[in-house]
Amino acid sequence: xxxxxxxxxxxxxxxxxxxxxxxxxxxxxxxxxxxxxxxxxxxxxxxxxxxxxxxxxxxxxxxxxxxxxxxxxxxxxxxxxxxxxxxxxxxxxxxxxxxxxxxxxxxxxxxxxxxxxxxxxxxxxxxxxxxxxxxxxxxxxxxxxxxxxxxxxxxxxxxxxxxxxxxxxxxxxxxxxxxxxxxxxxxxxxxxxxxxxxxxxxxxxxxxxxxxxxxxxxxxxxxxxxxxxxxxxxxxxxxxxxxxxxxxxxxxxxxxxxxxxxxxxxxxxxxxxxxxxxxxxxxxxxxxxxxxxxxxxxxxxxxxxxxxxxxxx
Length: 313
What we know:
There is one protein chain. By secondary structure, this protein is mainly β. The protein has a single domain (2-308), classed as Porin (Beta Barrel), CATH 2.40.160. Helices cover 6% and strands 58% of the residues. The strands form four sheets. It has a twelve-stranded antiparallel beta barrel. A three-stranded antiparallel beta sheet has the order 3-2-19, with no helix packed on it. The termini are far apart.
């Protein structure tokens, strides 16, 4: 009897995940447009990066209204491994692989908590970045654009007790996606420690083998970076994110998907040594307007270590 009850609760959790979507990306939610680390890599150097990202998705929102409901919550922990190389003064490449863990919790009266946990390798990414005006320390300016391809290297068809788990709880998307990016950075004065940057990214998502398509994304970022004498950098910015509604079978709109968010972003980074650099970033949604009713992001943070593999001491 107890086993049957637990099975029923688990099945209800899976079905709840299908009816109530969350603003979580199946490919680790990494913002490809903000990968500006290549500016500081010397020519010909390989740079290895390791990022841990945590996202809390516990706000139940209808439109712009936050609902008083703590009965369910989601979270994701993502590990991102990246390899960067600057080939010429203008051209750089980057490759990324993710490992994703997602958790969906439902709290029920009397019975208590029930969990649905998924984990596995997420999708991979390969991108090219070209600088029309390469970063110059004296002038403090940079104009770049890039393009990339996200490959479906992660599982997107996990099931539990024969029932397909919701697409946004899968480790991978199962689709091939294209990413276009552009950005401008300019120091306000050659001797000033302050720089301003504008970035924009558009991601066009494909349809996977199960005829499911995640909504296309547009991301815009406006930020200011302060360079200190201690070689530590602090960046504060605003990120705007819009996600279109998801679709099944090309034209059928998936309810409770898509929306618009405005995040406040703060980042601190510094050199630990000549070869090793660390970054810490936190992002808080100051505004959100979702389609229908969704679990939306409460906050997210990431910690990154960057190591220059073949840089001479």
